[in-house]
Specification:
This protein has 247 residues and is mainly alpha-helical. 68% of the residues lie in helices and 0% in strands. It binds zinc ion.
Length: 247
């Protein structure tokens, strides 16, 4: 039923946007909203022909239109920029995603809200790492983590997310020892808000790091000759670091 509804939504939005060319369409908030919905529903339309091209064209339109139409601090502009960066990342346009994430961080740093800066900074580091700008990614995630420690932004989820991203970037580039040290020094950040489910949080973090460790090497510019690690059971090693009593 959900597939049917999604297919119907795709058809309706395709029909609504049919008269418009995303390259030349006017910068109109209703068009931007329709484009955003269309991109969202297309994400679930796995067999839709030309899905990637359509999503990218409308994401480019919405991002450009939002940058013209809305002020730099407008939440809708931020939402559209985030959507555009995610579309770019999914389609391998990691350089474009990194440019957008950097622009977003500058916007949050200049106009606030300040509590969103650590998250935006983390997104920039992730985008740089995915683009193979590894030295810059290390520098940015380190600065983001240090910045967060001097703010009142809650440890959960922000501090925990920064920690797992930081460890994933280090591990992905082959610096396993530094990742271990970082995690051992900050195990208190691995938690599920409002619960004592440390084991669950450690499992999620361990899997995230193991995925980065497995998927990053092909684009890594620090250790381009490094052989990918074996796929099986890598997360268990990271979990043991986060839950030393179980190892
Ligand atoms: Zn790397």
């Amino acid at each position: 039923m959900r597939d049917l509804e999604n297919t119907r939504a795709c058809r309706l939005l395709s029909h609504a946007l049919g008269p418009f060319d995303p390259v030349t369409a006017r910068h109109d908030p209703r068009l931007m909203r329709a484009a955003t919905f269309y991109i969202d529903v297309l994400s679930f339309a796995h067999t839709h022909p030309d899905r990637d091209d359509i999503q990218l064209a409308w994401a480019r339109y919405a991002n450009q239109a939002a940058r013209t139409y809305y002020t730099v601090a407008n939440p809708t502009r931020h939402h559209i920029a985030d959507m555009y960066a995610r579309v770019c990342t999914r389609q391998g346009l990691t350089f474009d995603a990194a440019i957008t994430r950097r622009r977003e961080l500058t916007a949050y740093t200049t106009y606030g809200p300040a509590e969103d800066i650590p998250h935006a900074w983390r997104e920039l580091a992730v985008a740089l790492h995915a683009d193979g700008q590894c030295a810059e990614a290390h520098s940015q995630i380190q600065e983001a983590f240090t910045y967060w420690k001097h703010t009142d932004v809650p440890a959960q989820p922000t501090g925990g997310q920064l920690l797992s991203t930081y460890a994933g970037i280090l591990a992905g580039c082959g610096d396993t020892d530094a990742a271990h040290t970082l995690l051992r020094d900050h195990t208190y950040l691995v938690a599920v808000p409002g619960t004592d489910q440390r084991a669950t949080a450690a499992f999620i973090t361990a899997v995230q790091i193991a995925v980065a460790e497995r998927e990053h090497p092909p684009v890594c510019t620090l250790l381009p000759q490094r052989e990918p690690p074996p796929e099986a059971d890598r997360w268990q090693g990271w979990q043991a670091v986060l839950l030393p009593s179980r190892s």
